[in-house]
Amino acid sequence: MDRIRVGIVGGTGYGGMELVRLLLDHPAAEIACLVSRSEAGRRVDAVFPHLRGRIEQTFQGPDDADLAACDLVFFATPNGVAMHQVPGLLASGVRIIDLAADFRLRDPAAWTQWYGEAHACPELLADAIYGLPELDRDAIRSARLVANPGCYPTAVILALLPLLRAGLAGPGALIADAKSGASGAGRGAVVGNLLTELSENFRAYRVAGHRHLPEIRQALDRLAGQARELVFVPHVVPMIRGIHATCYAEVDAGIDLQAVYEDAYAGEPFVDVLAPGEHPETRSVRGANLCRIAVHRPPQTGRVVVLSVIDNLVKGAAGQAVQNMNLMFGLPETSGLTSLPIAP
Amino acid sequence: MDRIRVGIVGGTGYGGMELVRLLLDHPAAEIACLVSRSEAGRRVDAVFPHLRGRIEQTFQGPDDADLAACDLVFFATPNGVAMHQVPGLLASGVRIIDLAADFRLRDPAAWTQWYGEAHACPELLADAIYGLPELDRDAIRSARLVANPGCYPTAVILALLPLLRAGLAGPGALIADAKSGASGAGRGAVVGNLLTELSENFRAYRVAGHRHLPEIRQALDRLAGQARELVFVPHVVPMIRGIHATCYAEVDAGIDLQAVYEDAYAGEPFVDVLAPGEHPETRSVRGANLCRIAVHRPPQTGRVVVLSVIDNLVKGAAGQAVQNMNLMFGLPETSGLTSLPIAP
Amino acid sequence: MDRIRVGIVGGTGYGGMELVRLLLDHPAAEIACLVSRSEAGRRVDAVFPHLRGRIEQTFQGPDDADLAACDLVFFATPNGVAMHQVPGLLASGVRIIDLAADFRLRDPAAWTQWYGEAHACPELLADAIYGLPELDRDAIRSARLVANPGCYPTAVILALLPLLRAGLAGPGALIADAKSGASGAGRGAVVGNLLTELSENFRAYRVAGHRHLPEIRQALDRLAGQARELVFVPHVVPMIRGIHATCYAEVDAGIDLQAVYEDAYAGEPFVDVLAPGEHPETRSVRGANLCRIAVHRPPQTGRVVVLSVIDNLVKGAAGQAVQNMNLMFGLPETSGLTSLPIAP
Amino acid sequence: MDRIRVGIVGGTGYGGMELVRLLLDHPAAEIACLVSRSEAGRRVDAVFPHLRGRIEQTFQGPDDADLAACDLVFFATPNGVAMHQVPGLLASGVRIIDLAADFRLRDPAAWTQWYGEAHACPELLADAIYGLPELDRDAIRSARLVANPGCYPTAVILALLPLLRAGLAGPGALIADAKSGASGAGRGAVVGNLLTELSENFRAYRVAGHRHLPEIRQALDRLAGQARELVFVPHVVPMIRGIHATCYAEVDAGIDLQAVYEDAYAGEPFVDVLAPGEHPETRSVRGANLCRIAVHRPPQTGRVVVLSVIDNLVKGAAGQAVQNMNLMFGLPETSGLTSLPIAP
């Protein structure tokens, strides 16, 4: 089979960098063009010296790249960019995976509320498939347009999916206390993300409402079949990669939740349910397209505590995007995604 | 006034180190003796080079130090050590502040359950005062034996105190999702605490039951006037100092919680309630005897989220111990505790 | 005595923040005004939440502050700002300590070469005193204008001063291999200084010529009484605070260098020569106005290796500035500079 | 071709962990047995949770493993262990790669001096090949016993090899100022290697003589054809992986060193000479079997500064061991070693 010709728009953020890393080792895809407005004309390995010797290409400006000649275009751009280019590319027959938020919310009013502008192509929202394979694998296979999930939503939804799908969560609020490494905030020049500001420091942020909240709620409500009360509190951890979600829900005492989770994820190549009593650590998935989950029931409480970890740049972004590509093009789902986590 | 003559037993852990730092700058106390079994005979500044030029003393072995001649002895020893020495010292008229857990739980059976051995002097438990000044200031003033609170309990109890004291927490479980820097685990030689194991990593631990759980529950139940369901999940953050507690409770919609918190802590020298919408960060209290708290009510939920931060070695250990000493000896409560946090 | 009324221009960088921290605890100085172009009108503790409860002031714009009414003005501005304001303030009788580079090089041509523009007041360069007390204490006492040394120069000059003053360095090149924490690069929004770029990473930079090179060379040549060949290589360490200089020089075998260093720094309140065989660590000076030095002679070589550590924001910037203020105003040299290093 | 059956002795240190990671993805090798005295009987993925789902094996005790049935045995044991087992295995026809120091020094007296005991099989030292392919590729191909180089020696020797081989280094001392991440110190439970001790800290160590000094000197003297004065100063960086060597030598002004280095390493698959003026960073090789080098000539000096970076666990240990295995077994030298560095 010919290699899939892929384009990457927004190749200089961390999501784009990670896509390049994964695709350079992918057995069935080739990077046809890399688009960056800010770095157009520079060699990719001048911007990213860790790629020296592995890539000869040059970043192209948005008007120079022949994206329409690609089989698939990944958007790793800031929110609100892809929606302006996607309709034209779809019309050219190109399939799309958007790593940003442009196509994640089905309700255009919600998009406006959380992203502060009208959606440029609301008519496409109903066609976009939310690209969480464990939730909607078959729809992804035939999708033209995949909305790749956010990093927090991936960790939280995978933590709660078996519980909600089985209708086992009690009526109280679902709580998702989530912690992310700094790469989740992107590669922008922001004082608050300097090493001197983040290192030896820990804090919550956006408790009043993070943009991933409506995305998580949309997925959980769909799984639950009803609107659920959800509290989502993100925090930033002084490390580069990794998300840890600690999720709380009411449950009845008698249910064997370990079995529920193991059954729900049996056969899933990228979700690992740990043995009872274990605690996943973010480094156990560093660099790999994996989510590891542990299910705890603290004694003397009526709660379940579900712990889940992902690498926010892999299963939370670029790795999941490649997984979606594999599904869309009929490849083995694990193609190019088998490298081992790096520890220590 | 003569300076208070203090002894420190267990001067080589992080709690002991921090006590030495604070007491060397204290205007009304002097370190009469420093006891360390492992470092007996070595100069303190050979073990802790950051103290060179500021201390001439030598660690003494447990049998060599004249602790009975001290006005006050701090125990910064591992759990289960102080309880063997405290009765004799009390009999000699020495007052005691124990930074370990030996006198924190009022129920000797709970001590046995959580610490794996019988308590050596259960008859003293009823006399020991739990040394959280914001909870029990007057009792501390006259105490002979103060049980200095644990680091997690300090952060969690201060976060929930105004809510519970005012009877404003709804019936659902209280959830304390807490995150600690690595110094909370002490200075023992443990593989799991190596930089290579903790750095670029995040994980929960002891979800099934951490030793601080019964301590927190004892205080919260006392504040609430009834037994409360409590879920406590600790996590380790790749940094040295700092605890961040994220606490969740049910509350009615109409209550002005900001005012409740500001009123509860008005006049408290070491608790700072942030303005609405702010998020405390651990570095804002690094090195200082402070707890900063923010109160959030996420939209569309019936929950309050209380965020609190402390430096686990200061307000969570040695600083609070000095605060207790100040109260016990009739000094201004802030004596020796006014140095500013260090940021960045 | 009345308190010294000080102004700080450029209060929002790390040097300015650290000045505020030190001056708030200084027994004989008070901050009369804080100038920040970017934060004018905001409360200081809104910008720096770690100062909440300790400062009531608001940043003023450059035109609003009455700097001329101060006894002393600190400039903690980017290079090239102070030189435009200093002549006027001096004319008003205000004394100046500039933490930037504007008055460090005596040769205006060198300033132009390294800073890329003509000097605004070259006539003042001859009057400016290089504010390294261990080098030039008496001149500082009577100075109107003090050029506070750079962070690398402080660490390197103190490491080599005894050797060069005693004429003990052989003819080969002096090598200064220096390592700095990230706060040395300032608080600017620069991609290269993000936690995600600096953490888990180490690199040299500006090997072809760092702006501190001519400053170091000027001081070393003056000490040596001749031009010396100097290689200076800076590196960035994934930490916030601290500089470690590893300096190499040729020396004759027979000299007791330990005695030379101990004699040279006997009586210096802020320089500590470690015992033979020891290695200073940056955390042993964190937050404190100290330089610790160790002298090594590796076997089978004709070289000395001098290791020196400082906190770049304290002895390498704000602390040294306060030390200079103390000298200029006849205060005890250690006033406000006695707080202990913070470890861990 | 049948897969190479390899055994790993000492699988629970960082070198062993990294060998497992690389060999699990190697196309022509299989792990036949994993030996650990401390973890015998435990599943590998219970000790290393990041390997869950990828390895089914159990650690064997030293007496239970059939190492003699392997084609190749890697020793990733502490120094002084392999030398007791190697003679027997060689007699059984097994080939050996020792990642420890047992066979690196050709002079048994030097081994005794630096490692504090007599060598157990000094007669093998002359046969052992020093496994730095860039130095001695052909000898490695036919070796029975390969002494895998130390991490610092790999970085320093590759930095100076072209200079010394071409006879271009002047007579002055060679200086190697080297900086290592904490994984270089191993996975032992040592207080000094706790996160709380190493993080936010930087220091030199063993300036009087590190065990890698004789190893480096042996290789450099061989390249130079004469004994060279060498100063080697190691430092520990608060990060997990990576070594940065900053090397200094005298050179004549007229030589085009960039060309010398590019020529010397032309065709080397794992050494990358950067463009003039660039500075390698350790993260550019993280997780990959690469050494990146830059050559600088600071203006107004007669010195060259060579900067080299490796991942100490890959090109400085396990990756180089696999590279040696590939050479010994006639495989493509890059087999199993093509995964990309991970950044950020």
CATH architecture of the largest domain in chain A, by name, is 2-Layer Sandwich
Beta-strand content bin of chain A: 15-25%
Global mean pLDDT of chain A: 97
Number of domains of chain A: 2
- Molecular shape of chain A: globular
Unreliable spans of chain A? none
The major beta sheet of chain A can be summarized as:
7 strands, mixed
* C-alpha termini separation of chain A: 38 Å
How do the SSEs of chain A run, as a string of H and E?
EHEHEHEHEHEHEHEHEEHEEEH
- Rg of chain A, nearest Å: 20 Å
Strands side by side in the biggest sheet of chain A: 8-9-7-10-13-12-11
What is the CATH superfamily classification of the largest domain in chain A? Dihydrodipicolinate Reductase, domain 2
Tell me the helix content of chain A.
25-40%
What is the assembly state of the chains in this entry? homotetramer
CATH topology of the largest domain in chain A: Dihydrodipicolinate Reductase, domain 2
Main interface by residue count = A-B, 52 and 52 residues
Query: Number of helical segments of chain A?
Result: 10
Total beta strand runs of chain A: 13
Write down the CATH class of the largest domain in chain A.
Alpha Beta
Structural class of chain A: alpha/beta
Q: What can you see in these coordinates?
A:
Chains A, B, C, D: The active site is at residue 151. Chains A, B, C, D: InterPro entries: AGPR (IPR050085), AGPR_AS (IPR023013), AGPR_dimerisation_dom (IPR058924), AGPR_type-1 (IPR000706), NAD(P)-bd_dom_sf (IPR036291), Semialdehyde_DH_NAD-bd (IPR000534). The structure is a homotetramer of 344-residue chains. Chain A is an alpha/beta fold and 344 residues long. Helices cover 28% and strands 19% of the residues of chain A. Chain A has two domains: 4-127, Rossmann fold (3-Layer(aba) Sandwich), CATH 3.40.50.720; 152-312, Dihydrodipicolinate Reductase, domain 2 (2-Layer Sandwich). Chain A has ten helices and 13 strands. In chain A, helix 1 (14-24) crosses helix 10, helix 5 runs parallel beside helix 10 (314-328) and helix 6 (151-165) runs parallel beside helix 8. The two termini of chain A are 38 Å apart. The mean pLDDT of chain A is 97. Chains A and B meet through strand 7, strand 8, strand 9, strand 10 and strand 13 of A and strand 7, strand 8, strand 9, strand 10 and strand 13 of B.
